[in-house]
């Protein structure tokens, strides 16, 4: 699903429904999915492995999630697109609420994991290009659900991002990496100004479950 979501952001939601449905019935499959996701996208943990003595640069790049073929690392824009797709899929699964029987229920890997992911990200040193991209992706997809669940706490977190964490991202960002930064800044400012995070484009509405 990573390539599909990377190319078509809306695809995260129907894929999330299928994944979560299987996850609910077969929890072991959910564990395997998470393990696979964490291996391909360590930022979904979130985790940035440090370069250890004795580790080759090629192996380290693979640990960071880059595809390396014939000792050539994939281009940064392709890498970011893939990581974006996986984070969007993860966020879509986290925010999903769907009917179990006749009532709305939370997914087995629900919003509390999203809150934890966000808190852990903000406790890590930002990475140029990567952090701004993935925070934007994550919040655009499940920010609305987090806002409804955590309310005042969530807005305190958003203020912390703008006042404390965003300047730290700016400090490590070069002029050639400003695109993702400016997009994230615009998103932050609009959400804080309106005190609202809109439903993500492509999110499945109640009519979907009745169809």
Descriptive notes:
β3 and β4 form a beta hairpin. The protein has ten helices and four strands, in the order ααααββαββααααα. It is mostly helical and 211 residues long. It has one domain: Serine Threonine Protein Phosphatase 5, Tetratricopeptide repeat (Alpha Horseshoe), CATH 1.25.40.510. 64% of the residues lie in helices and 6% in strands. The strands form two sheets. A two-stranded antiparallel ribbon has the order 1-2. The chain has a two-stranded antiparallel sheet with strand order 3-4. This is mRNA export factor GLE1. It is found in: Cytoplasm; Nucleus, Nuclear pore complex. GO terms for molecular function: inositol hexakisphosphate binding; phospholipid binding; translation initiation factor binding. It holds the Pfam family GLE1.
Q: Provide the low-confidence segments as ranges.
A: 100-104
**Cα-based radius of gyration, to the nearest Å:** 17 Å
Which secondary-structure class do the elements indicate?
mainly alpha
Molecular shape: globular
> In percent terms, what proportion of residues is strand?
5-15%
């Amino acid at each position: 699903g990573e390539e599909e979501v990377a190319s078509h952001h809306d695809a995260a939601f129907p894929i999330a429904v299928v994944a979560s449905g299987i996850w609910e019935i077969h929890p072991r499959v959910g564990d395997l999915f998470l393990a696979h996701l964490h291996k391909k996208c360590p930022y979904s943990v979130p985790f940035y492995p440090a370069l250890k003595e004795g580790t080759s640069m090629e192996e380290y790049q693979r640990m960071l999630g880059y595809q390396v073929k014939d000792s050539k690392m994939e281009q940064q824009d392709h890498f970011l697109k893939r990581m974006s797709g996986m984070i969007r899929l993860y966020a879509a699964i986290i925010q999903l609420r769907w009917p179990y029987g006749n009532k709305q229920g939370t997914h087995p890997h629900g919003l509390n994991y999203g809150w934890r992911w966000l808190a852990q990200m903000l406790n890590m040193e930002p990475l140029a290009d990567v952090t701004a991209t993935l925070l934007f992706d994550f919040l655009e997809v499940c920010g609305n659900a987090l806002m409804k669940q955590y309310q005042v706490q969530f807005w305190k977190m958003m203020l912390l991002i703008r006042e404390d964490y965003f300047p730290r991202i700016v400090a490590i960002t070069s002029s050639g990496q400003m695109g993702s930064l400016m997009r994230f800044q615009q998103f932050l400012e609009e959400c804080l100004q309106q005190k609202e995070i809109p439903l993500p484009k492509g999110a499945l509405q109640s009519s979907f479950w009745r169809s």
